[in-house]
Task: structure prediction
Amino acid sequence: MATFIALLRAVNVGGRVYKMADLRSCLEAAGLAGVETYIQTGNVRFATSMRSRPKIEKHVEDALAGGCGFDVPVILLTPAELRGVYDDARALDSPLPGDPRRYVTFLKSEPTPAVAEAVEAQSFDGEAVRVVGRALHVWLTVPTQKAKSYNTKAHKSLLGTTRALNVVRTLAERWGSAPA
Result:
């Protein structure tokens, strides 16, 4: 059995409420093993005998749609991929002065070089974005609700889900593979 981490998009925001206990029960009923969640934002670890990432994503999305009554896009990672994103985040120097807040947007698929370049080229005061593989590393000194980079055409073309860096750190410590 292989272990995966599913980061769920838009769960427990904007009226799309799904209790984590119900989510765990739903995924266990769908045949996933060792289902564990962390906080209410849709962070799930499980084991499965399935190996195909697209099949696993679809299986989890179908199970959740049936369980909660709304579509829940799933961003699937292996423990090593989760650890790698966190290690990348730690290695990146801040492009902004001071002590900006840090976020990571996990993407369903890696952006094309043109889209990655367009996302990174955005220039807004108090905001910076770096693309590394399937992750957008975000620095903000402006309030999150006033951030403009999330509303650009390039950013909106990407399907992903965002976590604060402290949550990414905790997930990597709990569920990521051991650092090399």
Summary: The first helix runs from residue 20 to 29. The radius of gyration is 16 Å.
